[in-house]
Design brief:
Helix content is 26%, strand content 25%. The chain is α/β, with parallel strands linked by helices. The longest helix has 29 residues, at 37-65.
Length: 702
């Protein structure tokens, strides 16, 4: 549960921005470029990365002087649920630390399991039952002798010399009245061998094994593992402090009575409590500072923003980001911070603004969201939620992205990608995921988010999406109202898609759901019958960029290139950058990211930039090559030839490779932004889109 901090008093801050000094009329056109959603994600991710790196540097300095950490803390295991591990957890003992029984039965020696010559029935033997027993939690008998069987319970330690356990179901207790001995007949001895039904030392966890790694979100299973290891307190990343405020003269607190006597617009402020609830739903335990409603007065807005920046890691505002005379948030942020973008090609949420500043060696992130409630909520899910996960230590987090079948016609926006609120549900009859619109999608109509668990990603374009089309859908919550069998089947489909299981071969048993009806991102057409959409992943491979020591110029160049391609008049192809990442020049990191993009994200095109030269750390081609199922060397050869023809002699030093892994094309590009742009232009001239269409088409006979 989130902790709520008291709102700090907002004291005046000396400023040249007093309202009396600002009377100029606002421009009628925004000076901010309309950037793509993928570019916005890339910018935010980069700034979150800087936040984490700055926090690590402060930790090193503080650790050296004070022996404590700014970014992590020790919490009780009982309070660690939902936190992100800040340190690897290494086992300090074997589990189990002794040989233990997996069953109730008898501990015996394998040498004694020889079928007796005088027995009438084969595959059985009779042994003496020891007087001592081995019971879980009690002292263990010292050992067993030849011909003995020791009764043992589940979890009890094996006596010395015993090397297997016979389940009680395979035994029958006998009595020799004359000698007073207790005997046990063991059946099916041929199926028994040393180690049978025995938990060996360290079979669960070995001493010295790294059990849980940094960056892992602690859920119930991880909490149980830590308890098993005897970890009472655990190092986790500190939760971010989030300041929230609403702006607007027309706003009143949601609990205030409505006064309709005045001839003015009065609106209950629903954004603030809604955004606070969104934070609590994440279960990140973020500390929330509520700054209340700030009136549309430049002096008050500036003071509130400055106070929030002082006290919080993330500042979230709603309202005041459009083009009105009283929309002060953007111009104030231009003065007190660095605004990275002020408009996004999305619907709703176009005026969403993102800025950062630094204070006391700390990076501060400011998200200025639109005032319309739906715009604020959608922008929160798309931008703020991932940032909170990144800043909490989970830099690999992302919303689940599925493909669903729409049950209604949807008109496309010719300029912006629309995030259409919908309800995702499992159709048990047709074995597919359906998405139903939540109704009228006006950005002020918060009712459209009620009972919604997904956002249909409607690409920009002319015309409409017909009912029955397959559309990419961002999942904001797990579909409800599923029976246990439906939920099991649904999760099997989703996990199969995530793990890259295409179900090419089936042997025995019940076949899984038809994956063609669930659809991977490769299936086309998605949504529009007029345009083909290709999903793209961009991976920057660079030690220095990964450490935050150098700016990544190649990835923005690629995103800009695809945005330009999408804006070409009459284009029949849309390129959507669905995944971006920066990894160091390490084999495992590069390989894991390539496999994630190909086998789990199922993108059509993976472009890597960097690591293609001759230095010892340039290993991108060496890691890529073993992952390919088919080579496509002509693509990189064409890029090299074009580079040489353009007067770039160093083009011959590129060791880049290209090829196909299942239904994904991987191409290595150079690390320079100039080389990236030139290579992309070469690939487009060579009909890259045609190659991708051939790659994903169904095989035909020639």
């Amino acid at each position: 549960m989130s902790q709520e901090a008291p709102s700090p008093a907002i004291s005046p801050i000396p400023s040249s921005s007093h309202p009396s000094k600002h009377h100029s009329r606002r421009p009628t056109h925004s000076s901010y470029p309309l950037i793509s959603i993928s570019s916005a994600h890339h910018i935010i991710r980069g700034k979150c990365h800087e936040f984490n790196r700055m926090r690590e540097r402060r930790d090193k300095d503080r650790d050296a002087t004070m022996g404590s950490s700014c970014s992590s803390e020790l919490v009780l295991l009982s309070h660690a649920l939902g936190h992100v591990l800040a340190r690897d957890v290494t086992a300090k003992q074997n589990i189990p630390d002794k040989k233990c029984s997996m069953m109730d039965g008898y501990a015996v020696r394998e040498d004694d399991l020889v079928v007796g010559k005088n027995e009438k029935e084969e595959d059985q033997v009779v042994l003496r039952i020891m007087g001592e027993e081995s019971l879980a939690g009690e002292a263990t008998p010292k050992g067993i002798s030849s011909g003995d069987a020791c009764y043992i319970t589940t979890g009890a330690v094996l006596p010395l010399n015993a090397d297997l356990v016979v389940p009680v179901e395979q035994t029958e207790e006998l009595t020799r009245e004359r000698e007073g001995e207790r005997l046990v007949r063991i059946r099916g001895v041929k199926s028994l061998h040393a180690g049978k039904f025995v938990r060996q030392i360290g079979s669960d966890i070995k001493n010295g094994q790294v059990v849980l790694r940094t960056g892992l979100t602690l859920k119930s299973a991880e909490i149980g593992i830590l308890a098993q290891l005897g970890v009472a307190k655990v190092h986790v990343f500190k939760r971010p402090v989030v300041a929230i405020m609403s702006t607007g003269n027309e706003l009143v607190d949601y609990s205030a009575p409505m006064d309709n006597s005045k001839n003015t617009t009065v609106i209950r402020d629903c954004n603030r409590i809604m955004l606070q609830s969104c934070l609590r739903e994440m279960n990140l335990g973020a500390q929330i500072i509520d700054y209340g409603i700030i009136k549309d007065n430049r002096y008050d807005v500036e003071n509130a923003l400055k106070q929030a920046i002082r006290h919080a890691d993330i500042v979230i505002t709603s309202g005041g980001v459009s083009m009105g005379d009283k929309d002060y948030v953007k111009p104030i942020l231009e003065e007190i911070a660095t605004v990275h973008f002020g408009r996004v090609r999305m619907k709703p949420g176009k005026p969403t603004t993102f800025a950062t500043t630094e204070l006391m060696d700390s990076k501060k992130l400011i998200f200025a969201l639109p005032g319309n409630p739906v715009s604020a909520k959608v922008s929160y899910h798309l931008f703020v939620e991932p940032a909170l996960h990144f800043m909490s230590g989970n830099e690999s987090w992302h919303h689940p992205l599925l493909v669903t079948t729409v049950t209604h016609d949807i008109r496309m926006d010719p300029v912006r990608t629309e995030y259409h609120r919908c309800r995702v549900a499992w159709d048990a009859v047709d074995q597919k995921l359906l998405s139903r619109s939540t109704g009228h999608q006006q950005s002020s109509r918060l009712l459209s988010t009620a009972n919604s668990n997904g956002l249909l990603i409607i690409p920009q374009g002319e015309g409409r999406i017909n009912s029955g089309s397959k559309v990419k859908t961002l999942l904001t919550d797990l579909p409800q109202r599923l029976t246990s069998d439906e939920l099991k089947e649904w999760m099997a489909v989703v996990s199969g898609a995530a793990d890259g299981h295409h179900h090419h071969h089936h042997h025995h048993g019940t076949p899984p759901p038809d994956s063609s009806k669930i659809a991977s991102a490769h299936e086309r057409p998605l949504a529009s019958q007029e345009k083909t959409i290709f999903n793209v992943a961009i991976i920057t491979v660079s030690d220095r960029v990964h450490r935050g020591e150098m700016q990544d110029k190649s990835m923005p160049e690629m995103q800009k290139f695809f945005d330009q391609q999408n804006s070409l008049e009459g284009t029949s192809t849309l390129w959507e950058v669905m995944h971006t990442a920066v990894v160091p020049d390490e084999s495992k990191d590069i390989r894991d990211k390539l496999i994630e993009c190909c086998d789990r994200e199922h993108v059509h095109l993976v472009l890597t930039t960097g690591g293609t030269g001759f230095s010892p750390r340039d290993i991108t081609p060496d890691v890529t090559l073993p992952l390919l199922t088919r080579r496509a060397d002509q693509l990189t050869t064409a890029c090299m030839v074009d580079g040489l023809n353009s007067g770039v002699p160093t083009a011959m030093l590129s060791r880049a490779v290209a090829g196909i892994r299942d239904n994904t094309l991987i191409i290595n590009l150079p690390g320079s932004s100039r080389g990236v742009k030139q290579n992309l232009e070469t690939l487009m001239k060579g009909r890259l889109e045609h190659a991708l269409k051939l790659m994903i088409s169904k095989p035909t006979e020639h």
